[in-house]
Amino acid sequence: MIFDTHCHLNSEELLPRLEEVLESAKKVGVEKYLVVGWNKESSLKAIELAHQYDFIYAAIGFHPTDIDGVSEEDYLDLMSKANDPKVVAIGEIGLDYHWVKDPVQREKQKEWFIKQIEFANKVKKPISIHNREAFEDCLKILKEHKPQFGGVMHCYSGSVESLKDVLDLGLYISLDGPLTFTNAKTPKEVCEVVPLDCLVVETDSPYLPPHPHRGTINEPKNIALIIDAVSEIKGMSKKHILDVLYKNSCALFNIKL
Ligand code: NI
Predict the structure, then answer these.
(1) What confidence tens digit (pLDDT) does each residue in 95-120 have?
(2) Fewer Cβ close by (within 10 Å): the C or N end of the chain?
(3) This prediction's pTM
(4) Angstrom distance (rounded) from CA 187 to CA 177
(5) Pairing outcome for strands 87-96 and 56-60
């Protein structure tokens, strides 16, 4: 049993062939999905999919590169859906300094991140965190505005040294495609040392396809390659890895096993 804890079935790359995508993922054992929104429209789509399929769950929120021009009305309108039983997380939210260099914009990202963490605490949901090249600020915010209902560092790209800080906050680490890249040193080290009880996996599809599918549109079925890599790096049986990761994912999002 596999839980893809972060994918965008609500994207224009995957949505038009959803049935085929779900069918091929089912063949490798994918049984649950968290479909993650990045703006109002994609979040609403995630909720719609979650209502259409019992094995799909939704995360709603505003990604740090999608906050420009969002009105308070749109924000409140989307967040009013947070009590929907199929909305199991607020995300993806966070900081992205790779695409945003302007200090004013970065400040705005911080405000939005804090606002959404506090909202998640209010509605008692975990968060799905996007952090790109902003680890220090991201950590500072998380320490000052602690996610009280947990969360996950989606596509963890930090060092082994930073791992402790994240785990001390009670957050899960999520690994994905880069773990399988032939030149991936850090993700492999992270995978080796992270306690299995604090780990989940994801595809972030349609992005980040694992080796040997780099350069193609990623799909949830490719999560099998990530699980194989975890099993190999940790030197544990695939069955054990599958069991623990699935349990972790359900615990993270408060979903009954
Ligand atoms: Ni994503």
Answers:
(1) 999 999 999 999 999 999 999 999 99
(2) C
(3) 0.97
(4) 10
(5) parallel
d(CA 25, CA 124): 30
Q: How far, in Å, from the CA of 225 to the mean position of ligand 1? A: 18
> Which of the four pLDDT bands, split at 50, 70 and 90, describes residue 257?
confident
Phi, psi torsion values for 219, nearest 5 degrees: -140, 155
Q: How far is the CA of 249 from the centre of ligand 1 (A)?
A: 16
Contact indicator for 198, 172 with CB cutoff of 8 Å: yes
Identify the three-state secondary structure at position 213.
Answer: coil
CA nearest to 79, candidates 15, 10, 127, 143: 127
Nearest-angstrom CA–CA distance, 6 and 43: 13
**For residue 35, how far is its CA from the centre of ligand 1 (angstroms)?**
9
CA 207 to ligand 1 centroid distance, Å:
8
Sheet of 30-36, strand order: 2-7, 30-36, 56-60, 87-96, 127-132, 151-153, 172-175, 199-201
